[in-house]
Write a structure and sequence with these properties.
- The protein has helices at about 25-30, 45-55, 60-65, 75-85, 100-105, 140-150; strands spanning about 15, 25, 35-40, 65-70, 95, 120, 130.
- By secondary structure, it is an alpha/beta fold.
- It has a single domain, classed as 3-Layer(aba) Sandwich (Glutaredoxin), CATH 3.40.30.10.
- Strands 5-4-3-6-7 form a 5-stranded mixed beta sheet.
- The protein starts with 14 loop residues before the first strand and ends in a 5-residue tail after the last helix.
Length: about 150
C-alpha cells in the first residue's frame, strides 16, 4: 500500500458516482475547500460516527468554505440506505467500488477490500492541506485538526 498523501502534495483528481450525482474533485475545489472523509463500510458503528460527526458540524464546515464528500467502496444503493439511516445527509456519499481513489490517496486497508477511515482537507489549489490516514472518529483532537486546517481558530 502506498503511504497516505502528505500536506503540500497535490490531491489526485477523481470523478466518482455519488448519492448526489457524479462528484469531480476539480469541480469541487473550484468552489472552495473540500473535506474527503474516507470510511470503511456503510452502516458500521465507527463509520456511522465519522459521517455523523461531519453532518453535525456541516454548518460550521460550510461557513469555513468547505464541502464534504464521504467515500467508501460500497455501492450507491448501500449509500442511500446508510444516508437514510442517519436521517439524511447534507453532503454526498461517493462510491469508490474499485478502490482506485483510496489507492491514490494511500488509504486502502490490508485486505484490499475497503478503505481505511481517513480524512483529507483539500485546498482550492488542489493541494492537500491536512491528511490523516488513520482517522479515529472518537478522537476529539483529530476532529479539531480538520477544522484548524480549514482556518478555524481553536
Amino acid at each position: 500500500m502506498s503511504p497516505a498523501l502528505e500536506p503540500g502534495q497535490p490531491a489526485p483528481d477523481f470523478t466518482l458516482p455519488s448519492t448526489a450525482g457524479p462528484v469531480h474533485l476539480a469541480d469541487l475545489t473550484a468552489r472552495g475547500k473540500v473535506v474527503l472523509a474516507f470510511y470503511a463500510e456503510d452502516a458500521t458503528p465507527l463509520c456511522a460516527a465519522e459521517i455523523r460527526s461531519f453532518k453535525d458540524e456541516y454548518e460550521t464546515l460550510t461557513e469555513l468554505g468547505a464541502q464534504v464528500v464521504g467515500i467508501s467502496a460500497d455501492g450507491l444503493d448501500a449509500h442511500h440506505q446508510f444516508a437514510e439511516s442517519l436521517g439524511g445527509l447534507p453532503f454526498p456519499l461517493a462510491s469508490d467500488t474499485s478502490l482506485d481513489v483510496a489507492r491514490q490517496y494511500g488509504v486502502v486497508d490490508d485486505t484490499q477490500k475497503r478503505s481505511l477511515r481517513a480524512v483529507f482537507v483539500i485546498g482550492e489549489d488542489g493541494a492537500v492541506l491536512h491528511a490523516n490516514g488513520f482517522y479515529n472518529p472518537g478522537n476529539p483532537g483529530q476532529y479539531a485538526e480538520v477544522f484548524q486546517a480549514l482556518g478555524l481558530e481553536l
